[in-house]
Write a structure and sequence with these properties.
single chain, about 500 residues, 22 helices, 13 strands
Amino acid sequence: MDLKNANDYKESDVEVPCETHEVVSADEFEMVETPDETELVQEKKIEEMVQTPDETELVQEKKIEEMVQTPDETELVQEEKIEEMVETPVETESVQEEKVEEMVETPVETESVQEEKVEEMGEMPDETDSVQEEKIEEIKENPMLRSANLELEKPFESEVHESMHPTTMFGVEFAPLIIPLERRLQTTVVLHLVATFFFMGYGSILLGLYLLFFTRYWWLTVLYAGWFVYDIETCNRGGRRSEWVRNWPIWEHYRNYFPVSLKKSADLDPNKNYIFGYHPHGIIPLGAMCNFGTEGTGFSKLFPNIKPYLLMLQGIFWLPFLRDYMMTAGGCSVSKSSIEWILTKEGKGNAAVIVIGGAQEALEAHPGTHTLKLKARKGFVKLALRHGASLVPVYSFGENDLFDQAENPVGSKLRELQNYLTSKLGMSPPIFHGRGVFNYSFGLIPYRRPVMTVVGKPLDLEKVENPDETLVSQTHEKYISELCSLFDTHKTEFGIGEDVKLTII
């Protein structure tokens, strides 16, 4: 054995006592400084392994005792290796829980494992609400998200995009560049609907005039003008609904944008006709459009064999192309003749949806408010009595929160001007804003704020050919009472305080 190997063996393979380390240090020193004494050093090293039985026995005892003769340490090792499955019940239970009782014996662990696996299919309601309906039910039904005095200064994008870091420049909050495709699609669909409402009708008029006077395609304008005259009364005769249009997949993106939900309080008999009183109007009744103008919230599944007709201002059906588009969604005029047609000429199972407050109620549409223009609105009650139709109150929580409107208290100069224009134009001119396509601070797109529409219980009425004013007023009061009860029953689900009441003007 050469000197180098002997040193390596000693230092790595043998744990030498303290005295031995002193000798090794001296030998190493002598080995370097006194080369003539090499044979003596080698003999000394060999003797350390063979001829020094005292130290050799000590080393052997140390190695053997590690496995056998040191009962304290041996028991500890045995406990770590053996008692994991037998002698330590606490650790054994945890191991068994991880390997065996995942689905059976440990309910707490099993529920968490099952929820992770089963919730992918939507079968665990508790966790599913937080995963699948994070953008829908969680925001809407969590009362902590809203309160009666909530000041909705910012859209819900601020919460949803917190992890996406929107950029604020010059006081404008810009949308982040990286946004999930689903949200982009939602915004696009809502933009399409808002642009259609504001620009399709008037844009079509300008396009028709341009084609008529500045191109050789004047005949297109003439053809549509002839069709317009021929079809002018269709909006008063049940419209021209298209179930294909109402079931377009894009309406699901429309629903999820806010999101909008539809709830019912009772089943509706398809052998009767109904008048739905929709409240409030909002700046634009987008909740009414989603629930009753499309199948985005599944109206036909909640109310089978009931056909909704969303009634709109007569002026909308004077605008080319917009009128046709609205009729495919089931839209009709809100005129008296139109309502009577639906209640008498279309058979049974029809629901005429009327936004009772009308354009004037839009001037009351401020976030967090619940003011309805209803005291003097009795015409729909008279029609219901005359045709024996049931009255159904509908309240849409959150409808007033979708836009911000300039302050216009009653008696202010702005409100007086708005009332004057409303009387002349037939529609109100609220000064409002929402968000934009690429920013969250201003624009014509509604905010991403939840809307929860609740359909109340029907108020069944007996048919009275010529109801007097007393009967109409009594029925009107019953309707208001049912509406207030509906509001009070469901307001806490939307985070509205118990002390908040509807304001009827």
